[in-house]
Design goal:
Strand order of the largest sheet: 12-13-15-14-16-17-18-19-20
CATH topology of the largest domain: Rossmann fold
Largest sheet: 9 strands, mixed
Distance between the termini: 8 Å
Length: about 750
């Protein structure tokens, strides 16, 4: 035992020594305007990677000549075991003399386009760290700066529309009409660990064979994909109800018969605790209805619970049902919307055509991609089917499908495999970052909103304190803009013609009640928030996030006929102020100008808070007095009309569905674990009798490293198998709920 404890102390000491250096964002791309550099985490393989550091924020670098390294990404434990710096660029480490004059003086190109490896299979990108070796000793030590450490400093990604490295087998199965399915899986699955399951539901008049391009693509990256025959009856609300039962029945059939289906090739290989559900049209509303049934205990499965579903992706979903029957709750939720769709059109009528009502109900991470020119039918691969499209610049399958494949893959990696390389495809503007080799003629507006459980701070979501002069956080609001108001996003008057303040806001039906702010200007104006004393400390957050849309057919927007930009400013208690223009982060693009009317398309603007500090503004983020949006002034659009919603402070890391970092251990769900530390086996004892529970083991970064199913009784054991020494978290799930948590430490004998 003494040897175990000494080894444990040694590992902790090594980790603390290696990580006494400063962790700071370094990778990104230069900008011509303030803040002069855009710090990001994702780069496509054909993009350059640059470094920047602000000498005003980190004065210790002034007049220091240091070596700069790009190294393979290492975890904390890997750095602790080997802190030697080995540059992997073609030219090797670079020597650079830093200054505290301005951030512009400290910009250095790290790599050329196509220089770094962007794919090593079967994931979507390769992680790297950046190190400024301040003492030039060739090791990571306390004086150094690192972009990385806890997760990669940056990722380089390949073309996500290209097939992965795994050969794929496709096989069909029919038992009864509605127990018919097509399965895609890696051909060498026998040698692999269990893989996430992705389930695809089709719509009315559609076919389960329409989604080969998605199924084969995901399988080539290490997923099992099932597209099933869906009982959609005659469509309508009854179609969604039946189809949701069909989805659950097909998953039950697959899981319950995996030992015999397809000669048992999938037996033990399906990780049903990491499922993604997706569907198209009626099949797009289907998985949300099925999830709601499970969540509300309307139905149950002997094999899985609602907590096993890590994301839902609805493609052009119908929206027949109210919030009581279709509610994404806190699941990670995504929608693809076709701007030229003549079926699920978003028209201002009180009918199934308003899919954004489903999106607005969700409280988890949620994102939307609104594809200009995409019709309803181009999202599947049956070229003989009607495309249901009308409008300018129509998008073909050849243009659209590579994007769908890329984003579905990134989403599956992010939520089913905890791969953060997928995150920035959703948090950054499509106009600023998108998958490699994207067709430049395709225009997309995208929005993203973090989970309500992510620890964010809401400044104004316009759902409470609905008078214009008081925000939902009780900030005092002042403005000199005329015709500003908070509105219900409910346009059902049958026409997209202007005059209605909610024109184009097709996001509320039944009892849904999402609200937003509408503003307009043709001369300089502002809207400002005086922050309450209890909320003035912004220093614990990384981004200011808000979403904005151009108001459909508003005369000012028609006259402007381009994207809209405005200014965001902070002022602290000492009257120090700093401002940025939104163009660097996300311009608010024009709505798709479809014949017969347009609907509003929100874009998320996500501004790094430290950008307000660049070059010594001396702004104090812990004492913010005023947040102001300015319109019509220098560097901004001279006129325009916007909808604005969800003004929030958010953290860098999104709250993922299974991450251990966000979970709190309480007295009620602690586990008795012995011996701890352990070297070979550890016993886990619960405070009550378990029945068909699941045990998940996570590493320090919230990644699942072991899973034990069908746990029953009051105790069980976990063996070390292929686990390395270190700290792990144990989580017990029963009936979709967390029923026990604890920590274990693994050491050598």
């Amino acid at each position: 035992m003494k040897k175990q404890l000494l080894l444990l102390l040694s590992v902790i000491l090594l980790t603390s020594i290696c990580f006494a250096q400063t962790e700071v964002e370094l990778a990104g791309k230069p900008s011509m305007k303030f803040p002069h550099f855009h710090f990001v985490q994702n780069f496509n393989g054909d993009q350059k990677v640059n470094l920047a550091i602000d000498g005003k924020l980190y004065p210790a670098i002034d007049n220091i000549t240091a070596d700069v390294y790009v190294v393979a990404d290492k975890s904390a434990s890997q750095w602790a075991l080997n802190n030697t710096l080995l540059d992997i660029t073609s030219g090797g480490k670079q020597s650079f003399t830093f200054s505290n004059d301005s951030i512009q003086q400290n910009i250095l190109q790290l790599t050329a386009a196509n220089e770094l490896i962007a794919y090593n299979g079967p994931g979507i990108g390769v992680g790297y760290d950046v190190v400024i070796d301040m003492d030039n000793n060739g090791i990571l030590s306390s004086a150094d700066y690192i972009d990385g450490g806890d997760g990669a400093g940056f990722y380089v990604l390949h073309d996500l529309a290209q097939l992965g490295s795994l050969p794929v087998t496709t096989i069909d199965w029919t038992q009864t009409t509605y127990l018919t399915k097509r399965i895609w899986y890696p051909s060498n699955i026998a040698s692999m660990d269990s893989l996430p399951l992705i389930v695809i539901s089709h719509g009315w008049t559609h076919n389960y064979a329409y989604y080969d391009y998605i199924g084969s693509h995901l399988a080539s990256y290490g997923y099992i994909v099932m597209s099933h025959h869906n009982d959609v009856s005659n469509g309508g609300p009854g179609g969604t109800q039946l189809a949701s039962l069909s989805l659950i029945a097909n998953i039950n059939h697959l899981l319950g018969n995996q030992d015999t289906l397809f000669s048992g090739v999938l037996n033990g290989k399906i990780d049903h605790h990491r499922m993604g559900w997706m569907g198209h049209s009626t099949g797009g509303e289907t998985p949300v209805r099925a999830y709601t049934r499970l969540h509300n205990n309307e139905i149950s499965s002997a094999y899985f619970a609602w907590g096993d579903v890590k994301y839902i992706n609805s493609i052009c979903p119908v929206a027949w049902l109210s919030v009581t029957e279709v509610n994404p709750y806190s699941i990670n939720y995504h929608q693809f919307i076709g701007g030229a769709d003549t079926d699920v059109s978003g028209m201002p009528i009180d009918n199934y055509t308003q899919p954004m009502t489903i999106y607005e109900r969700g409280t988890g991470n949620k994102h939307v991609m609104y594809v200009h020119g995409a019709g309803h039918g181009v999202f599947h691969n049956d070229v003989s089917a009607w495309e249901w499209a009308s409008g300018p610049n129509l998008v073909s399958r050849a243009q659209l499908h590579p994007l769908v494949k890329g984003y579905v893959l990134a989403m599956s990696e992010l939520y089913c495999k905890q791969n953060n390389a997928g995150k920035e495809f959703f948090t950054r503007s499509y106009s600023e970052y998108r998958p490699m080799n994207t067709n430049d003629s395709v225009v997309i507006s995208n929005e993203c909103r973090e989970s309500q459980l992510s620890g964010k701070r809401v400044i104004d979501d316009f759902e409470t304190n609905t008078s214009l002069n008081l925000s939902s956080s009780s900030a005092i609001v002042t403005t000199n803009l005329v015709n500003s108001s908070e509105i219900l996003m409910k346009d059902v008057d049958g026409s997209f013609t202007p005059g209605n303040a909610a024109n184009g806001m097709t996001r509320a039906r039944f009892t849904d009640s999402p609200h937003c702010l509408v503003v307009e200007w043709n001369s300089p104006g502002y809207i400002s928030y005086t922050i309450p004393d209890s909320l003035k400390d912004f220093s614990g957050y990384e981004f200011l996030s808000l979403r904005a849309c151009q108001r459909t057919q508003h005369p000012f927007n028609v006259t402007l006929d381009t994207s809209i930009n405005f200014m965001v400013s902070f002022t602290d208690e000492a009257a120090k102020s700093s401002s940025v223009i939104t163009a660097l982060y996300s311009p608010v693009i024009q709505t798709y100008q479809r014949e017969g009317g347009w609907q509003n398309e929100f874009c998320t603007i996500r501004i790094r808070l430290k950008d307000f500090l660049v070059n010594g503004t001396q702004l104090d983020l812990s004492k913010i007095e005023l947040l102001q949006f300015s319109f019509g002034g220098t560097g901004t659009s001279t006129l325009g009309a916007l909808g604005i919603d969800d003004i929030e402070l958010v953290k860098k890391e999104m709250s993922l569905a299974t991450t251990i970092k966000e979970m709190q251990i309480t007295n009620e769900n602690k586990l008795f674990i012995y011996p701890n530390p352990f070297s070979e086996k550890v016993t886990i004892q619960s405070g009550f009798v378990l029945k068909n529970a699941s045990c998940m083991v996570y590493n320090l970064y919230g990644q699942s490293v072991k899973q034990i199913d069908n746990v029953s009784g009051k105790s069980f054991t976990i063996s070390r198998d292929n686990l390395s020494n270190g700290l792990y978290f144990v989580q017990l799930m029963q009936d979709g709920k967390v029923v026990g948590m604890g920590k274990v430490i693994l050491v050598d004998k």
